[in-house]
Design brief:
The protein has helices at about 5-10, 20-25, 55, 65-80, 90-105, 120-135, 155-160, 195-215, 240-250, 270-275, 305-310, 330-345, 345-365, 395-410, 430-450, and strands at about 35, 40-45, 50, 110-115, 145, 180, 220-225, 255-260, 280-285, 295-300, 370-375, 380-390, 395, 410-415, 415, 420-425. The protein is globular. Strands 4-10-9-8-7-5-6 form a seven-stranded mixed beta sheet, sandwiched between helices. Strands 11, 12, 13, 15 and 16 form a five-stranded antiparallel beta sheet that branches. It is an alpha/beta fold. Helices cover about 40% and strands about 15% of the residues. It contains 15 helices and 16 strands.
Length: about 450
């Protein structure tokens, strides 16, 4: 048996895939991707398509970012691993922390805590938020408030603040003291409002009410994504995040910005919080910090929070961390990625390309009633499938699966989740690549329309 046949025969037989039923993977084996170049991927059969998924929201600079590949190779030769636990560190972790301080300076974030990925970063931010209040003598502040449809990873803390039952129910009971409030999902909102600015006001009122009901002296932090990703690419009104920040400030509640997807340019700005004009107390990052080439993440910490820890005495010891925190290879990859990101400023391309993509999807929606909603910001876009346009009845997940296959056959890898098709291509794509994605999208729409 040759290698290709071997791989196809054993595909999904001995690997459980994330967010997937094991039996489904066996019945419908996943696409085997073997190569990547620029904004394209190549599968085991040699088909070359535009990757409209961007890996998993993370390959911002595409698959041919040679400086990052070279940095990983060189660091493997120099120092493939060493711990950054008490008493030791490495040169790359130090260098990276200085670069991140400079990059996040407009956000007021000057300290880094390194992790292995986005779920780790969220977990650390939740822990540090609780500890911050304890250092200040407010040990009763232990609760977290988050948004419906929000996604914050797969650890127990992150799953607990997730606002989607799909990512919670199989693992409950989860962390106590997690409160969920309505989010800025205009297409389906509980207030029956028709404008995003009105919805922003209603959600802000819900945060005020939740804090009052729970007691402000019991709430540690409010966590949100600048644009909700896995929940279906839900972009809020520009006033939304500033309103939530003001409420948090008034009640002494910390704000955690989950920037795992949005940091480093995806919204058309260097960070998601900066895109909306807000300084969070913590920013959770990962994904594009190494362009997806190495598992790595960082929690960025605001100056005002850092001061409390650094002058807080014995109670301020940071008693959490990971074996791979500050991994020298990951740090070297992040240094090279950040250097390239600052050089090419991919957010300046993400804005116009995202506008082209969203406008093209809107044109398709006008011709295909199966599209109920088009939404997005920068190079985060989504279309929502409905079986009844007037009633906004969600289409069956099988419809999205058929759409995905037809779109792939037509030249683009597009992610589907529930009744949504999600677009998050590399930030370096060109206008011609946007057209390829739109052409493939229309092919998928015709397939499910038929």
């Amino acid at each position: 048996m040759n290698k290709i046949n071997f791989l196809k025969e054993h595909n999904a037989r001995h690997v459980w895939h994330p967010m997937t039923h094991p039996a489904e993977s066996i019945a419908n084996p996943p696409t085997i991707v073997t190569e990547g170049e620029g904004v394209h991927i190549v599968d085991i059969d040699g088909r070359r398509v535009v990757d409209a998924v961007g890996g998993l929201w993370n390959v911002n600079l595409g698959y041919s970012c040679q400086p990052v590949k070279d940095a990983i190779s060189a660091q493997m030769q120099a120092l493939p691993y060493y711990s950054t636990f008490r008493g030791t560190t490495n040169d790359k972790a130090i260098e990276l922390s200085e670069m991140l301080r400079d990059f996040f300076r407009p956000d007021g974030l000057s300290r880094s805590f390194f992790t292995s990925g986005g779920s780790d970063s969220v977990e650390v931010a939740l822990k540090l938020a609780r500890q911050y209040h304890r250092i200040r003598g407010d040990a009763g502040r232990s609760k977290f408030i988050s948004l419906h449809k929000g996604y914050h990873g797969t650890h127990f803390g992150g799953a607990s603040v997730n606002g989607n039952a799909k990512f919670r129910q199989s693992y409950e009971p989860l962390l106590a003291g997690c409160i969920h409030i309505p989010g800025p999902y205009l297409y389906r909102n509980p207030f029956d409002v028709t404008t995003s600015v009105a919805l922003a006001g209603k959600c802000a009122q819900a945060l005020e009410q939740a804090i009052a009901f729970e007691g402000a002296d019991t709430v540690a932090a409010f966590i949100m994504e600048p644009v909700q990703g896995a929940g279906g690419v839900i972009a809020p009104h520009p006033d939304f995040m500033p309103m939530m920040r003001e409420i948090c400030d008034r009640h002494g509640v910390l704000m955690i910005a989950d920037e795992v997807i949005t940091a480093f340019g995806r919204l058309g700005s260097p960070t998601g919080a900066r895109h909306w004009g807000v300084q969070p107390d913590f920013a959770c990052t990962a994904k594009a910090i190494t362009n997806g080439y190495f598992p790595f993440g960082a929690v960025m910490i605001h100056d005002r929070v850092a001061e409390v820890f650094e002058t807080g005495g014995a109670r301020a010891s940071v008693d959490t961390g990971y074996t791979y925190s500050g991994h020298p290879v990951g740090a070297a990859a992040a240094i090279a990625c950040l250097t390239e990101t600052r050089r090419i400023r991919p957010w300046e391309n993400a804005g116009p390309r995202g506008a082209e993509l969203k406008a093209g999807l809107a044109r398709l929606a006008a011709r295909h009633e199966i599209i109920g909603d088009v939404r997005g910001e920068g190079l985060m876009c989504a279309i929502e499938f409905v079986s009844d346009h007037a009633a906004r009845t969600p289409a069956a997940s099988a419809v999205a699966a058929r759409f995905q296959k037809a779109a792939y056959d037509a030249g683009a890898m597009i992610r589907v989740s529930g009744n949504n098709a999600i677009f998050s291509p590399p930030l370096v794509l060109e206008a011609a690549d946007v057209e390829t994605i739109l052409t493939a999208t229309e092919a998928g729409l015709k397939a499910i329309g038929a």
